[in-house]
């Protein structure tokens, strides 16, 4: 039986809504700096892992979730863009949420992020 997105993301902490892409932290996840993205009304989900080495950013890793199809390339790129653009806040939110058990804000981003790599 395939998993459904709604059962997978139920009661998770949403951080951003970026042009229809929702980015969140899983309360069940115990792996550090893992963030998830899915598009509303779509049964696709991807996760992105932020890698640090001695506190310095080393890169991202896009990973699949067993039993669920991955986001399309366009949505994966949007996920990477929002993580990259808000990296400092996202790392702080992860620490606040998992280490200090604080509530973290939700942001709806309405304007496109300018990708400096273009």
Which range does the strand content fall in? Answer: 25-35%
Largest sheet: 6 strands, mixed
Shape type: globular
* Elements, N to C (H/E): HEEEEEHHE
How far apart are the termini?
41 Å
Mean pLDDT: 86
Helical segment count: 3
**What is the helical fraction, as a range of percent?**
25-40%
Structural class, please?
alpha+beta
Number of strands: 6
Rg calculated over all Cα atoms? 14 Å
Q: How are the strands of the biggest sheet laid out side by side? A: 5-4-3-2-1-6
Q: Which residues sit in consecutive blocks of at least 5 with pLDDT less than 50?
A: none
3D structure, described in words:
There is one protein chain. With 118 residues, the chain is an alpha+beta fold. The protein has 3 helices and 6 strands; from the N terminus they run αβββββααβ. It has a 6-stranded mixed β-sheet with strand order 5-4-3-2-1-6, covered by helices on one side. The longest helix is centred in the last third of the chain and has 13 residues. 21% of the residues are buried.
Concise overview:
The chain is 25% helix and 31% strand.
Summarize the helices and strands and which ones pair or pack.
Layout: H1 5-9, E1 13-18, E2 21-25, E3 34-39, E4 45-53, E5 56-63, H2 73-85, H3 87-98, E6 107-109
Parallel strand pairs: 1-6
Antiparallel strand pairs: 1-2, 2-3, 3-4, 4-5
